[in-house]
Design goal:
The longest helix is centred in the N-terminal third of the chain and has 24 residues, at 2-25. It is built from 2 helices and 5 strands; from the N terminus they run αββαβββ. Strands 2-4-5-1-3 form a 5-stranded mixed sheet. By secondary structure, the chain is α+β, with helices and mostly antiparallel strands. The relative contact order is 0.20. It is elongated.
């Protein structure tokens, strides 16, 4: 009987550890672990793939243009918290210059 109880305790402990690890990884148990907003970085594009989708700066929404300009003027990434950005926009042409817009998420 004690061997069966030991196996049950081991299985229950492993189950609890598995659930705790899952909740921690998904940010449910520790909400701040996955709570950072995405960040935008804009740099001049060097090597552009032939099949790259290039978006004209003028076709961005006013809010996206503001975020783009802020990221372009900044030496580091800017937060996109409460700012819209199209996730498919990677290359933007502004005033004849092609830029790569990278979104970083944590």
């Amino acid at each position: 009987m004690s061997r069966r109880l030991g196996q049950f305790a081991l299985a229950a402990s492993l189950l609890v550890l598995f659930v705790a690890a899952f909740l921690f990884i998904t940010g449910t148990l520790v909400p701040w672990s996955n709570s950072c907003p995405p960040h935008l970085d804009v740099d001049p594009a060097d090597d552009v793939p032939a099949d790259a989708e290039i978006v004209a700066y003028e076709s961005l929404t006013p809010a996206e243009r503001a975020a783009f300009d802020d990221a372009l003027a900044s030496d580091s990434m800017i937060s996109l918290e409460d700012r819209p950005w199209s996730p498919s926009t990677s290359y933007v042409r502004k005033n004849g210059t092609l830029y790569f817009a990278a979104v970083a998420v944590c």
